[in-house]
Structures are given as C-alpha cells and as structure tokens.
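Re: [help] complex structure
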Amino acid sequence: MPDDRNDPLEKLAAAHRSLEENLNDLARSARSLGDPRGRAAALEGLSCVVAYFERSMSRHQEDEERSLFPRLAVLESVAPTLDRLRQEHKAQRRALDELRAAIERDGGADAAEALPPLIDGLRAAYQRYVACEEQEVFPAARRFLQASAMHSIMNEMETRRGRGGQGNPAKGISGRPSRPGGMRRGP
Ligand SMILES: [Fe+2]
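Output below.
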C-alpha cells in the first residue's frame, strides 16, 4: 500500500484542497460584508485569510516551480502546459494583490459590492488551474518520475518549511486545514 505521507504529489493535491477551503472562507466572509453590524469583523477576517492565502500560495507555487516543474520540463507533451501554469501562478498573485488592495481601499460600504466578484473570479481561475494540474500534470509526473526524484521533491518541500528535508512523516507537511484563531493552515 502506498504511503501518502511521503508522496509529494499527494501533498501538492492536499495543498490545493486547503487553498480551496480558504477561498470558500473568503467568499463566506465577503457575503457577510452586507450586514453593517458585522462588516468590521468580516473585513478583519478577510484580511487574515488573504494574508494566510498569500503565504501558503506562495510556498505552494515555489514547490511546483522549483521542485516539480523542472523535473518534468523534458516531457514535450507537458512542457507547454507547465509554461501556462507558471503564467497562471503569476495571474493568481496579481488577483490576490488586487483583492488585498480592494479590502484596504473599500473598507466601507462599497466593499460588499466590490469584493465578491474579485473572489469569485479568483475561485473560478483556481478551479481551472487545479483541474489542469491534477488531471494532466500530476498523472504525467506519476508516470515519469522515479522514486528517487519523488523523494528529492519531498525533501525539498520539507526543507522549504524548515523541517530538515528528511521526509519524516511525523513532521510531514500537513495538507489538512485547521482553524486556530479562525485561520486555516495547510500547504
Ligand atoms: Fe498547484
């Protein structure tokens, strides 16, 4: 039976699930902006989730762009998709910058109208991106990469998180969302 705890592709997919949960949190917080009594708390919640999302998304993108994609670049069938995914990573960062700016700029009544479309756009783009990676790129990696390459990717991901890079499942990368203080953690 495969051990998912040391499988970098499982970890990357778990990071997608966690980021999706955070996008759902963002959408929920944005909906509560319509209630004037809850607006201040909703804006604070939005700021927290956006800050977390920026950190975790940045690390996830680094995992893919520095550890996974370079090892797949020799596959002619996948290389164009990898280029497109790098562009989508950039687009996600721009969308997040736009969202953060809108939260800071539209802290008043306009926020209830301005933010939901931005979040919906980010969610839709993210869904397309995740589908591409999980249906095309990860299966290609599963077919092509040797166990030693998978192990190296896992070690790099762990090292990126200051965990020593030994792939120790006891200290493994948690893809499971939790909510200390109302914030999710994960990828
Ligand atoms: Fe990804």
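Residues 12, 16, 60, 64, 133 surround fe (ii) ion (CB under 6 Å).
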